[in-house]
Structure formats: C-alpha cells, structure tokens
C-alpha cells in the first residue's frame, strides 16, 4: 500500500463530532484533512460560564492544531467551505479545493430566530465565543446603566433580564444570572441593589427542560424559582425591540420592558447544510438538517457521511436524535469506523445510539440528571455534572484552570472574568 | 463634620495611578468618585502575554467595582469624560456632571503614530485588551496564512514579523514571538516550518531598551539575538502598508515584505489631556503631556492634580519621569496625601520619586534589571521580574491563575490561549 496514494478523508468541522472522527482515525492508513473556520475546538456546553464572567474563552477552547499536533495523518486547515462538488468528490474552500475519497460533514448548528432577521442583533444567541463575550458585555453593562439611571421605570428595564428558551442553556444562564445579581455584585454598587434584578425565563412549551422527563422538569423549575427566577411557560415571544419584548400567553398579549434579552430558543443546522442539500439534491427538515441513512451516509452517496447537529438521524420512532454533544461524539466515532469498513470494502454498519443520559445544572450546587431509568437531582446531580464537564474539557491545563476557577467561585461567588470588552464598551447597551 | 457635606474627590482613570490614589483615600473623610471608560483595571505590563496567547484578558484585569466593593467612600462610575469646567469645578461626563472639590486626572496614555493616521489599522499598538486580542489574531492568523500559501515569497512575507520600537513592550513581544515560532508551534503545521519565521525588532534609536543603562541594553540585545530576533537599531520606519514596511537607515532606503507589523514605538497622553489643557489654557509637551508643578497640581489650579502618563513631571534635570507603572503608583499615593493636606489647609508637599529600578524580560528565563546602582541580567533578573509581576497583579485569584499558567507554559511551551477571535476570524489577515 506504500506506493499508492493513501485514501483521503476530509472532515468539515472541528466540533465534538468532527474532532471525535479525526481522533478515531489516528491509526488508520488514510490522510485526514480537518477543515474548520476557527482555529480552535470550543467546549460549547460551558459557553454560558464565559457569558456570565466565570471563565475566560481560552479556558473552554483548545487550538485544533495543538490537539492534532502529534497525529501525523491529520492536517488541520483553517478555511471556509464555499461549496461541494459531490460528483467530482471535491470540497471547494474559498482559496483551494480539497479532493476526498470519504467526506464527513460535521459543521454543527447555529442560532435560529425563526425568520426574524432583526432579532439576532437585539437578542444574541450563545453558540460562539463572540456570542459569549457579547452576552457578557450586555449583562454587565446593564447593571452599569441601571446604576447611572435615575428614572425608576428605566432603571427597572435595565435590571430586567429576559431569557427566551428554557432548554439547558436558558436554564443555566438563568441560574448564573441570579447568582450574579444576588451574590457576585452584592457589594459593588452604591445606588442600585443588584438583587432587585428580575430574571425571566420564557418558554413557549409547557415546561422547562422539555427534553427531560416531566418530574425532572418540575424539579428544575422548583430550583429555578428558589433561586429567584421568574419562570413563564406557555409564553411565546412575538416581538423584540431595544426597549423590551412582546409576549403572548394563550390569547393574552403582554409587554415586558427589558434592555437585555438573550436568546436560546432555537437552533438551526449551519448554513453549510443548505449547500450540501442543494449539491446532493436532498431535502432538509425544519431545522435545516439533512436526513441521513441508518449508516450516517447521505442517500445515494455512500462516501459522504453527515453527523452531529447537521444530521437528522431517526433512531426508533419519529423523533430525530437531539443536537447534543454525546450524539455528535458517538456519530463521529461511528463515522471513523465506517471509514475503515469502506476502505476494506465491507458493508457499512448502522449507527446505534446508546443514550448516556442528560444532565443540566441550575445555579450552584443543583442539577437534574437522567441516566437510563435513574433520575437524580440536587447536589449529587451537580457533582455528576461537574465531574463529567471537567473530564470532557480538552487539555489537562484547561481542566485544571477550570476546576480551580470553579472552586474559587464556589466559595467566593467571584466572577472576575466579567470584562466589558468590544467596540462600544462604554455605551451602556 | 458629620452634618456638612463631605469634600468630593473625583479621580479620572482606574489605571495604576488612579487606583493607587483611590485606595490611599480609604480612611480619609471624603467622597471619592472614580471614573473610568472601562469596567476593569488592566495590568498593562502583561498585555504582551495576552497578545501572544499565554494568558487570557481576564487574568490580567480586575473589575474596578470589585476592587472597591468594600471601600464605602469610593463610588465607581463607568463613563466617558466629555470635558472640564475648571472654574465651576465640574467634570462633564457624556450623561452627567460630577462636581468636585479636588480633581485627580490619571487617564493614562495611548499609542502614538506621529501623525500617520493610516498606521493604526496596519500596525496595532498594545495598550488595551482589544489591542491584545487583535495582535493575537494577527500573529496566529499569519502562521495559518503561511501554511495555506504556496508561493515562497508570499509565504515568507506571512512569516515575517516586524516589531517597531524596542522599548520593554517590543523586546518582550520579540522574545515571545520567537518562542512561539520555535517551540509552541513546533509540531502544529504540516507544510511550513514555523521556526523559519523572522522576527525583526526595529528601533530608531541607537540601542534596544533606550531607558536602560547601556550595558543592560547590550545584554538584552545579546539575549534577543540568541533567541533568533533580528535586531535593527538606528532604523526608522518611513512607510507601512498591507504588504510590508519601508525603512530608512542613514540614507539607505529598504523595503521589508511583512504582513504582520506591530507598533510599540510611541505613546501619547490620552486625548483627555488635550481637553484638560484647553480648559486650563495650558500647553502640552510633544507627547501631549501637561507640565505639572512640583506638587503635581496644574499651574494655577491647586485643586487639580495630574498624575501618571498624562503628567510631565520634571524631577532633576530636563527629562520628565517616564510613563511607567511605578511612577503612576507613587504619584497616585502622593496625590492622595495631597488631598489630606489640602483638606487640613496645609501647604502641599512636592512629589519626590524614588526610582525602584527598571526591569524588562526577554523571552523565557532571561531579563535585565536595574535597581539603584545594581544591575542584573539573566535568570536571576527573570526570577525578580516574575516575582514582581505576580505580586503586583490585582486579586489573589488572578495571581494564582497567572502563576499556574506561567508554570505550565514554562515546562510545556504551551500557548493554548491562542484563539483567533473577532469579526473576520477566517480572513487570514
């Protein structure tokens, strides 16, 4: 085999799925090219801790080149995919073309605003490092603006935080925001009392953490209320502007004055999914995802695998697997195994997902978790959450730094990574 | 005194000088208002470590409110100064007015490009967190662009780093850049050899570290050359564009092709100095600084003190004190002492500066230091540098985090805070 060129595997996306696939190909006799727009892998589940000033972006990111520095068969390319030529088996980047024998597409997902093009600027999502530092800027600028404001109504609007969407991210943000208002900023202001801040968690569905079992949702809601979060389920956001949000509950319209609105109500497959769909002549589902075969390949393209948040994989039943890290990682590993089968000329194997369970944290020292039939909540679930997240962070240095900062914050409520940075840092908004 | 309103001290700027003054007024019976555009104090001497991916911005910053949370007589105001009404004793912010009995102006300095208005965009300085993340983006994007470039000349231009100005910042950046090229990125690329990067340190004066004694300058230059830095003294930059720099040495013109140019050749007092000068009807020196009386007050305004980088203070001889942290800190403390004298109706005392010495580091484990008549270089000086800087960082948490990350980097050369972030993160430039 040494004289024939080695098969080329191109992986698009260095998130959980793409990284897992590339790592798993370490000892396989192929040339792996990992393409990403960013030079780092990001541990997205902890972005909310950057957004709330507990961690720095670099603590939850690891340079992709560093991750693969010793994997000689893996070449990292920093680049943007412009399109696909599936018949010629080529990926077009903006400045080069990459031929492949096998293509693994794992470009993840972004925030969806359901067609409201003006909402992203009004209510940032939480998918990128820039989202997190922008959210951080808004949160801490709001307290500053409230301190400068004499009018009680306007002050109240600055101290009102509306979180749209009560999935894990919304719940985690809500808990952290209450902790900031009640503890971290306790002694910091002279005119306002930060503890008067209102944190509203708005969810269109009937309960928080809709992906969790009902009893855990109830527990989470209880914990949130205990922290001081105002939980509003069955409430739809119908409008957002710079002064607040319009919501509807049943046939009741309501206006909430709030300068800080954060969005975690919808995700959509990365725009690359649209290009891949049109190149392959395939349909996408409502979330922009591509339906994949049981073996993770695209219909009619056995050499193209789609994994993670971009793939709509129906396991048993009509609901596709959720867009979470464990699914992406397992699919990434499976994709790597498929590469081996493909090269040996063996038939590909269907992907089987063994759900490791779900876990979400609610403020300090509380969490809810579901592992198989077991359900946990409270402090023990929180310890589980802590352990899982620390172990999964890439790089020993980051694990140590995160653990140290968490330990420190736990006892001091200190959130000293709360820098207001960016262009108009003194703007108030 | 309890029924009369307490005297108001307004301090502009939460850098080394302003922070020192405010802290020193802790037990004085005055109302202190500390105004800053940013919500944090920044430990500027370590900005180059953020720019080179060794530390995160939050590691060298501390929220001003947090610093003063327990100092009840100190109110922190996040705001931008729009002007001064010195006769009415008022500072105008963009959204409010602050009356004062005593005003301490300590707004620091920014980067000076000597009138070249297009240079800031081409060659960022290193004064703010945004400068540092932008520099970091450029440095690591350049290696990425080189990896994608096939043309050897263009590749060479991507791997050429021109640092303009051989003061402590330029010297520190040069050392760190060589370490990155030779060690941190050693295994990261497949096409380029990062060690081929050229680091040019350009200085218009006759030697590096012009503020140090000649023998230490020579030692520093030796260390820099050993690290692989190309030191060019007596060389003036005459032009900068996106492809490189034009320089002149004697009457020899030369062109250096380089995509990354970093500027630390000039500082200028913050623009606020201009407003203060025009309000007070005073002249500024070439660096925009205001000449202050021996007691740090503005001529004719005994209730207005100017300290730190904005002040031109002539000690003995014609040269004003340099714009370094120790001067600002000592002047801040002296300003606080003046406040006490002012309130007691005592005459103000002249400021006396006891130079604690200078220290600059050159890459890992080397530094030069001057303490009184003693001069150190090499490893011992570096340990001194390390100790001083760690001790001076605000906040125990940050001290611990910085020390840990330094320890880690020292043994592993790891620079995993090397995130390419910001708007056009995939742009190459």
UniProtKB/TrEMBL annotation, chains A, B:
Keywords: FAD, Flavoprotein, NAD, Oxidoreductase, Transit peptide. It is an enzyme of class 1 (oxidoreductase). It catalyses: a quinone + NADH + H(+) = a quinol + NAD(+). Its EC number is 1.6.5.9. Residues 8-332 form the FAD/NAD(P)-binding domain. The keyword Protease does not apply. Pfam families: NDH2_C, Pyr_redox_2. One of its GO terms (molecular function) is NADH dehydrogenase (quinone) (non-electrogenic) activity. Residues 357-407 form the External alternative NADH-ubiquinone oxidoreductase-like C-terminal domain. Belongs to the NADH dehydrogenase family. This is NADH:ubiquinone reductase (non-electrogenic). It comes from Pirellulimonas nuda.
């Amino acid at each position: 085999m040494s004289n024939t060129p080695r098969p080329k595997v191109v992986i698009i996306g260095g998130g959980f799925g793409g990284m897992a696939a590339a790592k798993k190909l370490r000892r396989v006799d192929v040339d792996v090219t990992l393409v990403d727009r960013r030079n780092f892998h990001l541990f997205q589940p902890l972005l909310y801790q950057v957004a709330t000033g507990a961690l720095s972006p670099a603590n939850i990111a690891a340079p992709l080149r560093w991750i693969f520095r010793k994997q000689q068969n893996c070449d990292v390319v920093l680049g943007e995919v412009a399109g696909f030529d599936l018949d010629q088996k080529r990926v077009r980047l903006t400045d080069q073309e990459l031929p492949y024998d096998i293509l693994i597409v794992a470009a993840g997902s972004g925030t969806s605003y359901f067609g409201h093009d003006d909402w992203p600027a009004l209510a940032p999502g939480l998918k990128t490092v820039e989202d997190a530092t922008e959210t951080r800027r808004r949160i801490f600028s709001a307290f500053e603006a409230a301190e400068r404001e004499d009018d009680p109504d306007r002050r109240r609007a600055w101290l009102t935080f509306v979180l749209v969407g009560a999935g894990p991210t919304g719940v985690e943000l809500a808990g952290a925001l209450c902790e900031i208002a009640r503890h971290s900023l306790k002694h910091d202001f002279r005119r306002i009392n930060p503890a008067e801040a209102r944190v509203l968690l708005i969810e269109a569905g009937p309960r928080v953490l809709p992906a969790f079992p009902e009893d855990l949702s109830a527990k989470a809601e209880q914990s949130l209320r205990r922290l001081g979060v105002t939980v509003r389920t069955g409430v739809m956001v119908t409008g957002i502007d710079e002064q607040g949000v319009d919501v509807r509950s049943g046939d009741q319209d309501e206006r909430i004055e709030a300068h800080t609105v954060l969005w975690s109500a919808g995700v959509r497959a990365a725009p690359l999914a649209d290009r891949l769909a049109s190149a392959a002549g395939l349909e996408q589902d409502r979330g922009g995802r591509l339906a994949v075969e049981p073996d993770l390949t695209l219909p009619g393209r056995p050499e193209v695998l789609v994994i993670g948040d971009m793939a709509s994989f129906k396991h048993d039943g009509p609901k596709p697997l959720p867009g979470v890290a464990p699914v992406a990682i397992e699919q990434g590993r499976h994709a790597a195994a498929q590469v081996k089968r493909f090269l040996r000329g063996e038939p590909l194997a269907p992907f089987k997902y063994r759900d490791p369970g779900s876990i979400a944290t609610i403020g300090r020292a509380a969490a809810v978790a579901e592992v198989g039939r077991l359900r946990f909540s409270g402090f023990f679930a929180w310890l589980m959450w802590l352990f899982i997240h620390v172990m999964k962070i890439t790089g020993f240095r980051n694990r140590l730094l995160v653990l140290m900062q968490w330990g420190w914050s736990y006892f001091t409520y200190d959130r000293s990574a709360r820098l207001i940075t960016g262009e108009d840092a003194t703007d108030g908004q």
